[in-house]
Amino acid sequence: MTINESTKQNLRRKSNYIDVVQMINGSPAFSWIDINVTELCNRKCIFCPRIDDDFYPNQNLNISLNLIRKMATELKHIKYQGAIVLCGFGEPLLHPDIIEVVSILSKNARIEIVTNGDYLTPSIITELVQAGAGYFVVSMYDGIHQVEKFKSLFLDANCPEEKFILRDRWHSEADGFGLKLTNRAGTIKIGDQDPIDISHPCHYPAYSMTIDWNGDALLCVQDWNKKVKLGNIFSQSLMEVWLSKAMQKRRNQLINGKRKQGPCNLCNADGTLHGYNHVKAWNL
Questions:
Q1: pLDDT bracket for residue 56 (50, 70, 90)
Q2: How far apart are CA 199 and CA 228, in angstroms?
Q3: DSSP secondary structure string, the chain?
Q4: To 10 degrees, the CA torsion angle through 126, 5, 15, 115?
Q5: How many CA atoms within 13 Å lie on the side-chain side of 45?
Q6: Can you tell me the distance from the alpha carbon of 186 to that of 190, in angstroms, rounded to the nearest whole number?
Q7: How far is the CA of 266 from the CAs of 53, 88, 210, 241, in angstroms?
Q8: Are strands 133-140 and 216-218 parallel, antiparallel or unpaired?
Q9: Checking DSSP bridges between strand 133-140 and strand 110-115, what pairing results, if any?
């Protein structure tokens, strides 16, 4: 599948910090945390599992500030050097306390916000930047006219261009909707999907963690079924989950190209666009 230029630009930018390995007590730490702060989204994109209400209904479920504070404390303790992306499975700007979420987490990590932009205003952008948001990734679904709209919003907020990227997502099925299309671990069939290869390595568990709104540590952000839960950070620390036997087992399997277990046996995500340095450091 062809990757468009905005996706390539996004991948190159992320490599500057995702692929830097921080060692903690002899083990590579995660460098990327994807937090699903809310189960709400105001859109239903055809290439997203949310298109089916029976499979993925909209729910007013939001991560608690207590959990956010717990994570921030742990990240400070390990002197975390990576990034946090607020995205996951919902629209992060629909979290009722999104400004405070950013404020708490930004003291100990670079914060990125991935949004459809529908709730962005100059004042919201200003508040988020003042709270510590380091980068905005705006996915535009309605058409090329949105480019000037969002550039104007960020300009009015005195937010420089190096702090945001605008991703064109208004394309048709014929050109993959303008994104690196995946089947979301077997939940989506729309578009020209890459084939599933259960012998293809995956680096996600070598460098990233996915935390759901309720504290569940998921295998990765591709698993919209949320069938594999590797722990819960209400009762465990991030590092306890990261170095747990369950996580190590999956990490070892996927680094070595063993995707026979679900949901990986249904997933067509490449999984190797990042994480090469972490794989070397794990030496599995």
A1: very high
A2: 19
A3: -PPPHHHHHHHHHHHHHHTPPPEETTEEPPSEEEE--BS--S---TTSGGG-TTTS-----B--HHHHHHHHHHHHHTT--SEEEE-TTS-GGGSTTHHHHHHHHTTSSEEEEEE-STT--HHHHHHHHHHTEEEEEEEE-S-THHHHHHHHHHHHTT--GGGEEEEE----GGGGGGS----TTTT---SSPPPP-TTS---HHHHEEEE-TTSEEES-TT-TT---EEEETTTS-HHHHHTSHHHHHHHHHHHTT---STTGGG------SS-HHHHHHHT-
A4: 30
A5: 23
A6: 11
A7: 21, 19, 19, 24
A8: unpaired
A9: parallel
Cβ atoms of 65 and 100 closer than 8 Å: yes
| Cα separation, 62 vs 256, whole angstroms | 35
Strand partners, 35: 86, 211
Question: What pTM did the predictor assign?
Answer: 0.93
Q: Give the list of residues 6+ apart from residue 243 with CB closer than 8 angstroms, or none.
A: 27
Q: What is the pLDDT of residues 163-221, one digit of tens each?
A: 999 998 886 665 655 566 899 999 998 888 899 999 999 999 999 999 999 999 999 99
Q: Which two structure tokens, joined as six digits, stand for 137?
A: 């990734």
- Which tokens hold the place of 61? 């479920």
